[in-house]
Amino acid sequence: MTFILEEKQSIANHFIAELRDLNIQKDRMRFRRNMERLAEILAYEMSKSFMYEAKDVETQLGVAHTSLISDRIVIGTILRAGLAMHMGLLNYFDKADNAFISAYRKHHKDGTFEISLQYVSCPDLNNCVLVISDPMLASGASMDVTIRQLRQFGTPKELHIATAIASTTGLEYIQRLYPDAHIWIGALDEELTAKSYIVPGLGDAGDLAFGSKLQE
Question: What is the pLDDT of residues 123-164, one digit of tens each?
Fold first, then answer.
């Protein structure tokens, strides 16, 4: 299942537009907040697909009958770019356990790159709902490596992927490898360059959120 938020008109379009705007991007705090707010909207939409159980809540005047999420949720995030989205998801799924993984592009002089992993912190994933956040789903290579690495910690009953901007190429790649995954996207862009950058995209989400880094 794939859900693309931008296909329907909503306030989310404003957040996506500001994330893309090269002038508004100069305000790092606003960029992080927009990424967080977009993740909150995706979390709300995502929550409609979870399992619920009936529960009675005692109030000062009686008993209210309601339904609460019964799934155990684990939010996994690709460092460092995914941190703002992670907080947005955690704002809504505040009882979730958390996983963190360092996956980044290690570029070579010939223009190619490989995905390098240096750090993983993860709880037991058996029978949980695993939600992985990464602001950009470009080629899909980082997401594939992340999923395979996290599966060493158990087998989730459901896999959800949350991303702000995805390329058609990256989406189709992940759909092919993980046909049962639920993919939640802010906006879908058609073009992917030879160096696997999304166009029009928004740039380097990690740098925009936290500042530029030294290149290896």
Answer: 999 999 999 999 999 999 889 999 999 999 999 999 999 999
Token pair for residue 16? Answer: 């996506």
Instruction: Give yes or no for a contact between 165 and 135, defined as CB atoms under 8 angstroms apart.
Output: yes
Instruction: Please list, in sequence order, all residues whose beta carbon lies within 8 angstroms of the beta carbon of residue 45, skipping any fewer than 6 positions away.
Output: 3, 5, 184
The pTM (predicted TM-score) of the whole model is 0.90
Element (H, E) at 131: strand 129-133
In the chain, domain spans:
2-53+70-210
- Spatial separation of the C-alpha atoms in residues 37 and 35, rounded to whole Å: 6
**Sign of the torsion angle spanned by Cα atoms 101, 90, 171, 49:** positive
C-alpha distances in angstroms, 153 versus 38, 157, 204? Answer: 28, 13, 29
Using a pLDDT cut of 90, give the percent of the chain over it: 77
Instruction: Tell me the DSSP string of 135-180.
Output: SEESSSHHHHHHHHHHGGG---SEEEEEEEEEEHHHHHHHHHH-TT
Given the DSSP bridges, would you call strands 158-167 and 129-133 parallel, antiparallel or unpaired? parallel
Task: Tell whether the torsion through CA atoms of 123, 124, 129 and 133 is positive or negative.
Answer: positive
Per CATH, the number for 2-53+70-210 is 3.40.50.2020
Residue 195: both structure tokens together:
């160096």
